[in-house]
Amino acid sequence: MDHIELSLTQSLDHCIKCNICTSACPVAAVTDVFPGPKYVGPQAQRFRHAAQPVPDASVDYCSGCRVCNQVCPTGVRIAELNARARAQIVAERGMPLRNRIIARSGLVGRLSSGPHAPLVNFTLNFAPARWIIERVMGIHRHAPLPKASTYTFRRWFKRRKPATNGRRPQVVYFHGCSTNYYEPHVGKAAIAVLEHLGFEVIVPPQRCCGLPLLSNGDFPAAQSHHEYNVAQLLPYARAGIPIVGTSTSCTLTLKEEAPELLGLHGDDIRAVAAGTYDIFEFLRDLHQQGRLRTDFRPIERELPYHPPCQLRAHRIGRPVLDVLGLIPGLRLRESRAECCGIAGTYGLKREKYQIAMDVGKPLFDFVRASGQDLALCDSETCRWQISGATGVATRHPIEILAEAYGLSV
Amino acid sequence: MQTLSTDVLVIGGGATGTGCALDLAMRGIRCILVEKGDLTHGTTGRYHGLLHSGGRYVTKDPQSATECAHENAILRRIMPHCIEQTSGFFVITPWDDESYGDVFVANCHRTGVPVQEISVAEMLRREPALNPRISRVFEVHDGSADSFLATHSVALAAREYGAEIRTYHNVVDLVRVGDRVVGAIVEDLRSGERIRIDCTYVLNAAGAWAGKIAALAGVTVTVVPGKGTMVAMNHRMVNTVVNRCKLPSDGDIIVPIHTVAVIGTTDVHVPDPDVFGIEPEEIQFMLDEGEKLIPGFRQYRALRAWAGVRPLYKDKDVASDRDIPRTFKLLDHEERDGVSGILSIVGGKWTTYRLMAEQTVNELARRLGNTQPCRTASEVLPVPRFEHRAHAMVTVSTDPAAQTPHYWLGKPLALVESEHAAGDLICECELVTRDRIVAAIDAGAHNLDDIRRDVRMGMGPCQGGWCIYRTANLLYERRCADGLSHTHANEAILHFLQERWKGLTPVLWGDQLRQARLDELIYAGVLGIHRLRALAEPGGGLVTQHPAIATEYVQA
């Protein structure tokens, strides 16, 4: 075992039972079915045995938001211990059909998007259909589902006229499933901004980053996705071409979630991890190097902004506040809420929907109280959750940046 | 003075004495057992928990090896709830003599200890934390055993057969008429009351203390108290017992038991079984030896250290204490010393306790004219009430193998889960619920340390940081009607904190130091424990500071 692996498996030894994580956990605060991160994490781990039946199921109520990791004073890798415990449950007891489907966001997106998307969207908005889906599949009838796009981002990207004004620095864009199948406008905004800044944008073949598979406990499938993506991205990483993404959870997965949970620590995996950036992290770096254009149009607005858990797990501060703060007139009010509750696919599940809504309530209250008709958030599932719960429209911050540059998307 | 009368007075509430009481009672022989502390207070409650395959003795002590192999199979049958089927490896590391491997196997065959060589690759597949530089691996039928629970089960069965078991009863004198021992004077440490017990035979099963008991009858029994120090690590980095394949020595075994892995042991001759300390060098040496088996061993969290004293019987001059045979011996003092009415059973080890009892009781029965055969090898032992409720079969999967009454690590977690008892945990580290603590108190635990031995309360990583005051509260609630006052409960807290602290001081670095600091903040900073002494007094049925039982771990 190398030291990274050891730091994860041994980290339960650092728990001093102080209960700070239990106090901070947004899930334990709203439900009794989840005994809390200390309980299911370092405490329960001492009772789990690789070769014996998994004793517990309540660890499945961990949403994976990582608030526990952030507050732990001794560095216990609680969220990772929980994810691995869930994977052991899945390996032993199998995975419910519902989870197998929602964990495969690439496949679901591929089937939903395209010319038939309006029909899909109508069905998923049709109450009796949702009732049946809840009954048959266990996806809550009120859970926020995204609207499928009539075209995919990749198709749009392939058909557009590439910008050809000489040799430009290159950057790789990792779009993720949501941009490709549901929100191509986010990807279009990213391309527009990156090209406006003088980059040639490369969009290599890519699969789902595997995060939904990891958080539903299907580690073998997640590993095959990750290995595919690493193979596609490695030449660029080796050539020093940055890999940027607009989905903060996809970039986190490439950076550390997949390598750590899956115990993959090879040179190739590390090279891709080291070369991957959240797009605003990348833009802030550019600004620090004096390479970010600041020819912004003023935007006289005050908007609520929620830094999602998955962004906070990057441990890069709040690059969105740093970059959008350069736009004249724009004021962002940061939510202090721990979590929106959705945690990827967690809040879609019938048995967890209400927990997710209760977890997100402080955030929803904050967004509503802002009185604005628009909120910003880096993560797609969080945006859908916020909009679903509050009725307030949500956008990725990159779209505001594109608007400030006066780029038509 | 109250006088009781019985056929056999058994002295010592460890595995051997309790096993003898059961065997006597099963054959219909009246007996009373007295123990100065709680059951398992002596060496039985202070060992690493190894159920011997016999492998450790195949070369130097072949008779013990054969006995262990035989008893191992019996114990798995009669106390499945106490034994974890971990299996065991004997491994040759780069520091060991490569040629001993073949000798070891040959001696296993000679002594009837089942053994099978497996590949290093297979070993690493099963135990990835082990040193990949290990060159050969031999698998044996080692296991781990809960000696607290096992002794309680034996005592429970003995009581059901009519034996009387009195804990916290200290033998202050043996009554000798001429050349015959006819009884004993014992003191009830809870009340200070003295009782006379008249008997046909005294059976001295006091283990490391057997010499002290024999001396009361004017007889010399040389028991060499061999102190063995052990360190419990916070979690199980291996799930198989791992032994160095060499002649037994210090720090050469790691036993996964319950939630911890125990590395052991040292072997230091101490003059008195009641007076010994744990030296820093012992701890450092064992951690160094642990590194050879599991690279990075020092980086794991050490929970606590403790020591037990082996009851080695020294027949004649032997060079090293490790060379004293681990076999047991029944001493007939009439034949040996001219004093009748007393027998001593000395030596041996936990794994062979039942055989020791069988042979001892065979002799006693013969003398008492009892012709009943021994049945302890076939009757399955009962499960005490404070063990998990109804010892429920836990169904966690449809696989029948998983629905087992046998010990498995995850059982406490599965039970808490199935009973939705996560909010009702008193000891969170070891997942001990309120119900189990209350059951232990109601079953007669006399202080918090007794409760610990019964249900593992306070034995986890926080070493009582969060559960001592909770448990003391329950003790008060359950006993206040019987006269236990809050000052007694305070005494119980102080006593138990001191007991825990003894085991913490040798391992105060890293994570455990951080824990001790938090625990100190809880007890000294928040609860003002240093002011409690003025509000505490012994009594109320608690036994805490009596010198007969409170002298262990004094620095030598």
Automatic annotation (TrEMBL), chain A:
Q: Which PROSITE patterns match?
A: 4FE4S_FER_1, 4FE4S_FER_2
Q: Which GO terms describe its biological process?
A: anaerobic respiration
Picking any one GO molecular function of the record gives: metal ion binding
Pfam families this protein is in? CCG (PF02754), Fer4_8 (PF13183)
Domain 4Fe-4S ferredoxin-type, first and last residues per copy = 6-36, 51-82
Q: Which GO terms describe its cellular component?
A: glycerol-3-phosphate dehydrogenase (FAD) complex; membrane
- Which InterPro entries does the record cross-reference, listed alphabetically? 4Fe4S_Fe-S-bd, 4Fe4S_Fe_S_CS, AB_hydrolase_fold, Cys_rich_dom, G3P_DH_GlpC_su, Helical_ferredxn
Print the keywords alphabetically: 4Fe-4S, Iron, Iron-sulfur, Metal-binding, Repeat
Q: What is this protein called?
A: sn-glycerol-3-phosphate dehydrogenase subunit C
From TrEMBL, chain B:
Q: Which organism is it from?
A: Chloroflexus islandicus
Q: Where is the FAD dependent oxidoreductase domain?
A: 7-354
Subcellular location per UniProt equals: Cell membrane
Molecular-function GO terms, alphabetical = flavin adenine dinucleotide binding; FMN binding; glycerol-3-phosphate dehydrogenase (quinone) activity
Descriptive protein name: Glycerol-3-phosphate dehydrogenase
Alphabetically ordered keywords of this record: Cell membrane, FAD, Flavoprotein, Membrane, Oxidoreductase
Please report the stretch or stretches of sequence annotated as the BFD-like [2Fe-2S]-binding domain.
Answer: 425-475
Taxonomy, superkingdom: Bacteria
